[in-house]
Amino acid sequence: MQTLENIDRELFLFFNSAHTEWLDPLMWFLSGRIIWLPVVVLIVFFLVRKIGKSFWIAFIAIALCYLLTEQLSVLIKDTVQRYRPTHNTEISLLVHTVNNYRGALYGFVSSHAANSFGLALLSTLFIRKWWVALALFIWAFIVSYSRIYLGVHYPADVAAGAALGIMMATLIYFPSVYFMNKMNSRKDKIKTEA
User: Fold this and answer.
1) CA distance linking residue 61 with residue 173, whole number of Å
2) Count of structural domains, the chain
3) What pLDDT sits at residue 190?
4) How far apart are CA 137 and CA 142, in angstroms?
5) Residue 44 lies in a domain
6) Is the dihedral of CA 89, 141, 37, 75 positive or negative?
């Protein structure tokens, strides 16, 4: 276990040290919540085009995925209590931060990674366009990497967060599709009877 933690720490220091002055504000912006607004607007647009009137079921599923990944990641943080790199006294002086941001005390798992990868996978499963999937997963990866860049997460925090998001998206997708199919078959039945 100690060997894995050492590898994680070394990987963190390698990625976190690869910073430049011009990239700092960009990574700060990409890590913020404002970047989510245009992504969500585009997802809703594609959901409406792909699914039609039943898009609200997919939207509720995505909102539920976000809520669950957010709450579960915080619960895991409070349970595991692994210090963020910025709060780890062994390496905190080596950590590059932006705007002196250090995050809360604990960092395992990354909520940003859980939220963004959950959103990316669930949206991809509903929209089913390869280029939308590619764009969403690149966005999720960049958001997740920004957390390492800012010094508030180890790579393992991000990887575990991404896994949590993917797991929740998968678990939510299948009941959502079942419910969509039930709604659509009921509508078809009403049309044929009319």
Assistant:
1) 7
2) 1
3) 55
4) 9
5) no
6) negative
